[in-house]
Fold:
Amino acid sequence: MVKKMIKTYKVMLLPNNKQNTKLFQSAGTARFAYNWVLGKQKENHAQGNKFLNDSVLRKEFTQLKKTDEFKWTNNYSNNITKQAIKDACDAYIKFFKKQSQFPKFKSKRKSRPSFYVDSVKIEFSETHVKLEKIADSTRKNRAKANWIKLAEKNRIPVGVKYYNPRITFDGINWWISVGIECEDVVEMKTNSSGLGIDIGIKDLAICSDGNTYNNINKTKTVKKLKKKKRRLQRKVSKKYLKNKKGERYCKTCNIIKSEKELLKVNHRLTDIRHNHLHQTTSDIINRKPRFIVLEDLNVKGMMKNKHLSKAVQEQCFYEFYRQIEYKCNWSGIEFITANRFYPSSKLCSHCGNIKRDLKLSDRVYKCECGNEIDRDLQAAINLERYGEQSIT
Structure:
């Protein structure tokens, strides 16, 4: 069975100084076009006029580029501003459809620098990616600046159709993300049994077949990084207080340097956690169960508990849920979501009795029928049975 889907690849870029400057300027051009559209739409709405379509705004922006004040926008790819205008209009429409909040103007300091690249003009080689108008000159020796080095070799397929290429900056490095249509061959499942997974704070995931995946936040590496993060946060805070002038805080070069160190530690922690999630979810999928059941947890409600909110946040429940879901779709495994009110932990796996007074501190489930079992393992077993009942 052949199934077509779009897979997204994300690779870090290694630009030189001139390319790095041009990437920031391209992101600034996209931000300018986005803010210009929002200003136009707000002014138009205040006057009681109808919504301005993105095609109308693109024609108006083309005339604006011919003026002396805004002719600098011609130094950058036309597709950057076109897509920024379309993105702003889409955000404006989503607000009136009550799908999102009102779009805000993008700030130079606070917003994430990003821009769109034309999917037709972008080119990939084994080691580089070619972007439009990074170099101004058309001479061969200088036009090489359009080719930016990729951090990973042979990561992105060459000579295929690309979808929605985007360049983003995360505070430290530039990244390129691009979608590619793949023909995914769905293999037949070799394991006839399903799998129930209970996710928690003590351990990341407990499976109904007895496999347990540990909490990465309890390892020495993560604890050491968290300690370093706390020290850097205190260091930055003290420097801000030391350089306070009246009611304003003065941002010195040393503060910027310390904040960059703090950002690197934050990125390192995020990478470790997400890598652990990918390894865990891939190992679960590679066992090829017939179906996978996860409980629909009320994470928003769990975050209101001041004693557990930090631990819940560090476990990245939503990311685990997201990875399991899309990897199931890739592998042809049925994904089932159990109702959040289903008593997976309180239900006895032997006699079916529900223990209403079960507390969070009770790590071992003890039933009147003599059943003694770890509460998380029992929840996983009950979730597997929930999946069996859902299929039948």
Q: What stands out?
A: The chain has two domains: 2-185, 195-391. The chain has a mean pLDDT of 89.
